[in-house]
Automatic annotation (TrEMBL), chain A:
It comes from Torulaspora delbrueckii (Yeast). The lineage of its organism: Eukaryota, Fungi, Dikarya, Ascomycota, Saccharomycotina. This is ribose-phosphate diphosphokinase. Pfam families: Pribosyl_synth (PF14572), Pribosyltran_N (PF13793). Belongs to the ribose-phosphate pyrophosphokinase family. CDD domains: PRTases_typeI. One of its GO terms (molecular function) is ATP binding.
UniProtKB/TrEMBL annotation, chain B:
Residues 6-124 form the Ribose-phosphate pyrophosphokinase N-terminal domain. It comes from the Eukaryota. This is ribose-phosphate diphosphokinase. It catalyses: D-ribose 5-phosphate + ATP = 5-phospho-alpha-D-ribose 1-diphosphate + AMP + H(+). GO terms for cellular component: cytoplasm; ribose phosphate diphosphokinase complex. One of its GO terms (biological process) is 5-phosphoribose 1-diphosphate biosynthetic process. Its EC number is 2.7.6.1. Keywords: ATP-binding, Kinase, Magnesium, Metal-binding, Nucleotide biosynthesis, Nucleotide-binding, Transferase. It is an enzyme of class 2 (transferase). Belongs to the ribose-phosphate pyrophosphokinase family. It comes from Torulaspora delbrueckii (Yeast). InterPro entries: PRib_PP_synth_CS, Pribosyltran_N, PRTase-like, PRTase_dom, Rib-P_diPkinase. The keyword ATP-binding applies.
Amino acid sequence: MGDIVILGGNSHPELVKMICDNLGVHPSRVQLGKFSNGETSISVSESVREKDVYVIQSGCGHVNDSFMELLILISACKTASASRVTAVMPYFCYSRQPDIPYTAKGAPLISKVKESGAINGKEAQSPLNSTLMTHRPGEDSRFKSLDTAIRATANTMDQHRSHSGTNLKNVASFSRIPMIPGGKEAGSARADAGELFNSQNAGYKLWVAQAGTLIANLLTTAGADHVITMDLHDPQFQGFFDIPVDNLYCQPIAQNYIQHCIPNYKEAVVVSPDAGGAKRATAIADSLKLSFALIHKERRSQLLKGPPTTTGLPMASKPLVTTFNSAEMHPSSSNSKYVQTTMLVGDVRNKVCILVDDLVDTSYTITRAAKLLKDQGATKVYAIVTHGIFSGDALSRISQSCIDKLIVSNSVPQQETIEYLGKENVDILDVSRVFAEAIRRIHNGESISMLFEHGW
Amino acid sequence: MSSNSIKLLAGNSHPELAEVISKRLGIPLSKVGVYQYSNKETSVTIGESIRDEDVYIIQTGTGEQEINDFLMELLIMIHACKTASVRRVTAVIPNFPYARQDKKDKSRAPITAKLIANLLQTAGCDHVITMDLHASQIQGFFHIPVDNLYAEPSVLNYIKTKTDLANAILVSPDAGGAKRVASLADKLDLNFALIHKERQKANEVSKMVLVGDVTGKSCLLIDDMADTCGTLVKATNTLMDHGAKEVIAIVSHGIFSGAARERLKNSRLSRIVCTNTVPVDLDLDILDQIDISPTLAEAIRRLHNGESVSYLFTHAPL
């Protein structure tokens, strides 16, 4: 392994070390930091001239910071005459973004009010704010909310306004798209949203910019010659690149786990928590000859399908999937809607269920699925997840959920997960060997196809 | 049905500046939603049709924690506009981020400014408006037109109206800024002095040597940016030690990161003046701001109408 250089970013130093241990090389010394004004500063301490460079950076933590760090590292290696630079991104950031901008119960939200932590925290607890989308409002209080005022409930609204007023001077809130209120909010907020969707935006459907192509192009622009990643949410993402992309699979490792660590696995049912993951789950079910079940859910809000009716915006009138604790808040209607919109296809009664998903972020989907499985008589629920982002209050939701055991790969750091959920409830799948072997094979110009089928 | 009119989009970095530019132009800011998911990815929603319009995105480089977030916001917004079939996207970046990492000053150092230029072009940017680039050579990193505006005309107005011109002397805190100061000195017909500094590490300054006589003078210390303010404060001390009457610092970009606030508070500066290219959250009595939004607004108007912007290099619009 003479001319190989492994550089690790800040996002996941443990994985870098494990990959290097597997390869039997030392990671190259690199100084990563920030200038006083926040600009990312890097400095590569060893020569990379005519070397085969692998930059390992997962898309986790402060995503934009780690992504910029990756771009700067790649470009630094390129300008330092590296012969080839490969970006190793165990979790590929921006590979999944919802295409529906707003649901009735929340949306991606930036929140920059500095003191709003407590308020946001409270909201996070409230089932009112549970969103249908997998991503939910950011609770990162560093980001100023230009529209929290509209989203917030009536009493928190005033607090927000006063915060915004003192901190942000004259924020151009008029240019912002107000949030659709998340439930039984003040009438004024509802009017705002209704106005936006009825009059000002007549004939125009809101859409969310898809960053996928952009991210691919940015990597190429920075100078990446090759990309290694794992379990891309959309396999089509590979097509966004003009450079080779090796998409590794976690499936062999997951299968291996099922076979060795789940007692009596032959009686278990593999379950996909949504229709999109059906293919991934059936692949595992087929190769292990297990039965398969599917949870189908309606993710869409009716809001976007037509103009709101006069009773339009309150959540109760819509067939929304609610979280399991919503019964306390909305005893009547929401629960019945729950059954209507989330369906289980397949039989799980008195069976052990293995939920399989590629990505768990806010954990709404998977905890909801686990609850449904238990309701349908499943004895035990395992959840096998490739990328465990667990943003927001995902971990607390999982710890309160019906998931008996969480199995997650170390494509993003899982230290916090283990600490939060307890060692006995979490198993970590080690993907470092797959990445190390892929790097070794790519470096030596060998085929990596066998990694797709066999665990390593 | 296209009107090909100006559409102003604002990122989250400096909403106040975007608003004054929009007021100045009499064009409301277009509806955009720039949010962050809980997993810290950026999400952009354009709230109205911008097909075949002339789009200007106002986003500056600022924020000790968020500078990369703002950069990604800008890139995603540009990309979103491009995919929404706009006629032209212009990035208005009053303070160009990473402008100081513009050369390979040691082995394997990244030329990040060049990378940023490439990223902007990859995202689909057609034109860039910026102000007081740290090194004007950065314009050459782009394959697209870059209008590097100057805060100098606005600064000239400020000096003429708000300082003791008769007893003033201009001072450059380092050799690199000598040209900038000399140009100002010519226009004001003032003398100028120079401080030579020996820098050992980034964000740290060591020894200072004053060239010129400042005894009893009101010194105007001119620089393109004030970041940690180490240079400014040391230069101020040097000037005061050499018998200056007072020191007023005038900078284009007031970044004021790290210990800047404390340093300025305890310094012997009688005034610190910066423009509003970046939001300043300093809360000091000695702070004064110059509004450069007229220049940016006029540049946008002229660019849209296909007029020359050279006038703005020497004149500040009223």
